[in-house]
Prior knowledge:
This protein is mostly beta strands. The chain has three helices and 26 strands. It has one domain: Beta-galactosidase, Chain A, domain 5 (Distorted Sandwich).
Amino acid sequence: MSQFKVSQYTDTYVIYELVETSTDSRVLVCPERGGIVIGCKLLGKELFYLDKKTFEDPAANIRGGNPVLFPICGPLEDSEYNWEGETYRMGQHGVARNRSWDIVGTSEANEASITIRLRADEETLASYPFRFELIFTYALVNGELHTRQTYRNIGDNSPMPFYAGFHPYFAIEGGKDIAYDTDATRYIDYNDNVVKPYTGSVDLEPMVESFCLLDAKRSSISFPNGSGTRVRLTYDPLFKYVVIWSLKDRPFVCVEPWMAQPLEMNRREELVLLLAGEELQANMTISCENVSS
C-alpha cells in the first residue's frame, strides 16, 4: 500500500485530505473557501489553529488555517488605492482568500498533493484590474508541507503589481512571550509605529496590532509552540518580511511571510511587477521537530 493518499469528504465544504502514513502527517485543503489549508498535522502533531465557526460561515474571514494573501498583504489606506488615474477599493489581504479555487489535479506519486487554480473574474477585476492566474500546489512529503506557488499575468498589456503572502495560524500553549529564531535585528511595532531592536523575543499578549521583523537575511524562522514542538517556516527570499500577530486570550500566533509591508500598494516602493505573459514562482515550507526530550 502506498504511503501517500489523497481523498475527499464533505464538512460544510468539500475537504481534500493529503496523507503520508510513514510520517503520521495529514493536511486538509478547502479549495472553495479561498484555497485554504485548514489542517496541518506533521509528525503526529497538529500545528494549526482553526475557529470552525468562522470557517463554516461563508461571510466571515476565517480565523485559522493558512489564508492566502493576494494581491496585497494587510490593509490599504482607507481601503483604496489609485492606479493609472483610477481609484479602486479592496479589503484587507486582497481577493484570493475569499474566492473559490478550481481543482487542477491531485497526485499520490512520490507525495500527496493537490494543485488548485484561481483566475481573475469580473468581481476581482472591479477591485484589482489585472488578469491574473494563481496556481498553487500543496504537497505533503517527508513530514513537510510545501506550498509551491505560480503567479501569472495573463493580461495583454499592463504590468501587474502585487505583493503576496500567507497568514498561518499556529496553535500554541502557554504564554505569548515567544523566542523566534531569526536573524532579524529590528522590528516595527504597529501598535505605536516605532522601530525597536529585536533582542530574541517579543511578548504579543499585551499587543493589539502586529509587529513586523526587519533586516532578516535568512529566509526562515522557527519558534516553540509550547507543546514540545518547534515549528519552522522556510520561504523564498521574495518574502522579505515576517509579520507576527495574535488576538488576546486566543491560543494561536500568526507567523506570516509577506513580500512587502502593509500599504505597499499606496506607497509603491517594493511592489512586484509582472509583465504581461510573465510568471513568478515561489515556495514556502512548513516543518516541525520534537524538542520535548
